[in-house]
Amino acid sequence: MADVLVISGYGINCEAETAHAFERAGARPSIVHINDIISGKSRIGEFDIIVFPGGFSYGDDTGSGSAFANKIRNNVWDDVKDFISSDKLILGICNGFQIMVSLGLFGPQYGVRNCALLANSQNRYECRWVHIKHRDSRCVFTQGMDRSHVPVAHGEGRFYCDAETLKSLESNRQVVFTYCDAFGNEAGGFPDNPNGSLAGIAGICDKSGRLFGMMPHPERGLYSCNEPEFQWKKEIARRNGLIVRELIESNFMIFKNAVDFVGR
Fold this sequence. Notes:
The protein has eight helices and eleven strands. The protein is α/β, with parallel strands linked by helices.
């Protein structure tokens, strides 16, 4: 059984939902405060998957995810590098993605930052459901996926990098998700692209495909009843003699793929 470390801390607020998603996928999640990791009460190497959940760590007062990333870099960076070299998995969702970007986990080498998540182009916090499309990526978490309907909730989710880095990400199949409309067409602008991300990017992975970060929240969109259109979809299904499935399989697959990869 996969052991999943869901890192909690000051301002993190999605640890319970994230742990539930992994438990539903057949893993054994543990929610552990960052201070307990630093003190050695819990050790990173004991786990198969690390998750940086969503939230607003340290109030995002010094930039989203940057203070939490510094706490990791200044205390357990060697442990994180050892974890990565052991062919294990890391997932970052929303604030967790921001933490991973700040740590430089998607760069040409680990620790070298190559991109940023900036303030949304409309300069406001966005909390809405969006559509995302899976690209031909090497990401372990998303194999077999196509499109999904998933919530976002962030004020600094606008992906940005220079032209050379974007070309490298695309050629290395590191672009995992891009925003799209309800029919799978490329997002032209707001609200389909809720933050103005460069090339509509909603998630990327490292060159190995084992480290993955995304701005949308699949753990908040695990069940069909989470969708704002649930009652409408249920009624349409009832009239056609059908039922609405309990899970939004495309979001659940992210967690199941990770657990299956560890157990292979």
